[in-house]
Amino acid sequence: DVRLVESGGGLAQAGGSLTLACVVSGITFYDYAVAWFRQAPGKPREFVADIGPEGRATYQDGVKGRFTVSRDNAKNTIYLQMNSLKPEDTALYLCRRGSFWGQGTQVTVSS
Known about the structure:
The protein contains no helices and eleven strands. With 111 residues, the protein is mainly β. A hairpin with a 4-residue loop joins strand 7 and strand 8. The termini are far apart.
C-alpha cells in the first residue's frame, strides 16, 4: 500500500519559517512526482507545490519566492521549506501521490 506521512507542522510567527517533511512508502519513490496541498478551515483544498522525479518544481503564485520544495530519494522524503510565513498560510498541509493522501500536518501562523 502507498502511504504518506507528514510531519513538521506547528506554530510560527509571521515572518518565521517552518520545514515540513513527507515520507512516502509503497512506491518506487524516485520514479514519481509528489505534491503538497493545503486546506484552511472553510476553504477548498489548494495546490501549493510539487516536485518531479528529476527535481523540477512548480509552485502556486502565492508561495513563489517564499516556499521551496525538495526531495531526498535516499530517504523517500519530500520537504517543504516555508519562509516569510504569513497568517494566510495557516492550514492543514498534506502531501499527495496520485490518488493517495497523507493525514496532514497543521501549520498555524500568528500575526
